[in-house]
Structure formats: C-alpha cells, structure tokens
Amino acid sequence: MKIFAANWKMYKSPQETREFFAQLLLPAQSQLVLVFPPALCVESAIESTKGTQIKIGVQNISSKSEGALTGENSASVAMSMGCEYALVGHSERRSLFAESDSVLNQKVKFAQDIGMRCVFCIGETLEQRKSGQTFEVLKNQLQLGLKDVKSEKLIIAYEPVWAIGTGLTATPQQAQETQSQVVTWLNENGFSGAPVLYGGSVKPDNAKELIQQKSISGFLIGGASLNPESFAQICQS
Ligand code: 13P
Q1: In testing the pocket of ligand 1, which one of 3, 7, 35 has its CB within 8 Å of the most ligand atoms?
Q2: Tell me: the pLDDT tens digits for 15-48?
Q3: Residues with C-beta less than 6 Å from any ligand 1 atom
Q4: Is 159 a catalytic residue?
Q5: Spatial distance between the Cα atoms of 49 and 173, rounded to a whole number of angstroms
Q6: Residue 28 confidence (pLDDT)
Q7: CATH of the domain at 13
Q8: Do residues 27 and 232 touch, judged by C-beta distance below 8 A?
C-alpha cells in the first residue's frame, strides 16, 4: 500500500484547514493518506476527516508526556485527540531548531512507547551529496536516530535537503539509488519492511515517475500538499 503524506509546515488556519478537506476529492483506492497540519489546526483537521480514510498527525512532539516545556507539543495529548502519527527529524527541525540525533532518538522511542507511529526523516545537504558523503550521512542519521527503536510501525522519509522547497527534485534514478541503499540498511539492521517515502519538491507532474521506483513506498509532500487539487493528483499517481 502506497503512503501519501502531506506536511503543511506552518501554513493554514483552522478555517483554511476545514476548507481544504471540504474540497479534497481523493481517489477511492487503498492507500494510506496522512496529513500533518500545524499543531493549532490538528483539532479542526480531526473533526473535518472523521469517517474518512485520512489520518492526522503532528509535525513535532516532545519526548516527554508533560512538563515545564514552554511551546512543546505533548505526543500523549495528540494521541488522545486522535493523532496516530508524528513526524520526527524533519530537516527543518534538525537545522532551524537544532534537534540533535539523540533528542530525535528519544522522541521516536517515546512515541513508540505510547503507541504512536513515527515518520522518521533523514536527508543530506547539497554539499554532502557533492562530496560523495550521501550514504554515510544517512546511515549515521539512521544509526543514531533509531538506536533501540522497535521496527513495528516505523516509516522512514528520505528528503534530500537540497530538494526541499527548492523546485529541485532528485531524479527518479537518484531517489531510487539512494533509497535502495536505505532499504538495504533497514533490512540489515532489524527494520525490514519499513516503508521508505521520498520527499522534496514532489509535484503532480513528477509524482508518476517517482512512484514507479521500486524503493519508493510513497511521498512526503510539502508545498504541493497545500492545494487540495494538486495533493489529490499526487495521490492518484
Ligand atoms: P516540498 O515538497 O515543498 O519540497 O517540501 C518537502 C518537505 O519538506 C516535506 O516534509
């Protein structure tokens, strides 16, 4: 089953969230559709998608259930509201919010302890790709981020940093080549069967060719997921 995940980042209000779902027409196929709205829109997203195939997740979680942690999102509370999924390790969290591999590891473990399913993101910068370090970087992120993590329910998202929001997409061959190395690592390290999504400037016009690649189990989509038509087109690919 292919997975289509929308990461809205810090876009949309509760009202815009309701409008999006009112306009979204998904193909009646068996696929897993996930939407990660901003935390302030989670409640309206859950209300708008009741009784549909769409699952709602949070873009960031704390590794603690509660505490003196101003501004953080409790995964336990998100779960109780109906969020079954969390994004962990997005490159924007790693670079703009200085989330280290060990912090991310604690987040994944905490989410798993309470039964939440994580989409764990990895990716290399352009500099790292140009200097031939891509797989070393990804392997390091996987090794540290998934230390002592259970394989059940885990989803990986490969998002080359240079392809995020830039309009530059990894070619289907580049994505396939890198993701097959990730799949091999997962198989050899007790995570066989974990789906690996591709993210980075996925659009309706490049989705078809990318989704045909053997090691791509679905997409994590930013910009193109904000529009109900383009998101639905990608889900049809
Ligand atoms: P874009 O699809 O806008 O490049 O964003 C990708 C992304 O970061 C999804 O998490």
Answers
A1: 7
A2: 999 999 999 999 877 789 999 999 999 999 999 9
A3: 7, 90, 159, 164-165, 199-202, 220-224
A4: yes
A5: 35
A6: 76
A7: 3.20.20.70
A8: yes
DSSP state of 138: H
DSSP annotation of 39 reads G
Query: Which domain does 12 fall in, by range?
Result: 2-64+71-235
Average pLDDT over the chain, rounded to an integer: 96
Kindly give the distance from the C-alpha atom of residue 213 to the centroid of ligand 1, in angstroms, as a whole number: 19
How many angstroms separate the Cα of 213 from the Cα of each of 2, 31, 141, 153, 198? 12, 17, 23, 22, 10
Give the separation between CA 70 and CA 235, rounded to whole angstroms.
36
Number of domains, the chain: 1
Taking the C-alpha atoms of residue 83 and residue 89, their distance in angstroms, rounded to an integer, is: 18
Q: What is the pLDDT of residue 76?
A: 96
- Measured in angstroms, how far is the CA atom of residue 199 from the centroid of ligand 1? 6
Q: Is the pLDDT of residue 151 over 80?
A: yes
Report the alpha-carbon distance of residue 99 to residue 111 in Å, rounded.
16
